[in-house]
Amino acid sequence: MKKDFNLTKLFYSFAIAFSVVTLSSCNNDDNSPLPPPSTNDVAGTYNGKVLITQVTPATAKENAGEAPQGQDVNATVKNDTVFFDKLPVTELITSIVGDKDKAEAIVKAIGDVKYKVGYKPALNTEKDSIYLAFDPKPLTLQLPAAVEGQEGQTVTVTISSPDKGSFAYKKNQLKLKLSADKVELAGVAVPVPQTLFNFDMTKKK
């Protein structure tokens, strides 16, 4: 009986010791500090919408009272660059050729339009957002030839960034705006309206 009693006491001693260690470990995990905010936190993959509008008095009157319709868009953000694998350009091409059906045929022939834009990040004072100062480069598109056997034409689009972009920690939300300010077709300026791209995307977890 004495031997059994000692074994029982030993078992309970181990059980209590294990419980203390486990609770201590959990408390340490709960109290471990979160990593400080870093400008690298903006990196990741995103999906969301892009609202494309053209700045002309006519379209402003036509679209008055209408709810804006965005297009699906995805992006990959690295430490200094935002990459778009499928930048929507139908509105831009339509403004160049002047015909929506022709523009859609051209967009189909061009395929997916890839575009990347560099940026410099900075944390705001409250450290709950990251501001992104963009440095856009021209977008180059190769239009297919109108007649088989002829060479296609190169479209060069001057892109600017009217405002700084922002990444909000609370919603993992990335917002940025790009503007197509000038279009050249084979080196000749084409009179087209300014096209604005407003991106509103959420970081995938």
UniProtKB/TrEMBL annotation:
PROSITE patterns: PROKAR_LIPOPROTEIN. InterPro entries: DUF4840. It comes from the Bacteria. Pfam families: DUF4840 (PF16128). This is DUF4840 domain-containing protein. It comes from Bacteroides fragilis str. S36L11.
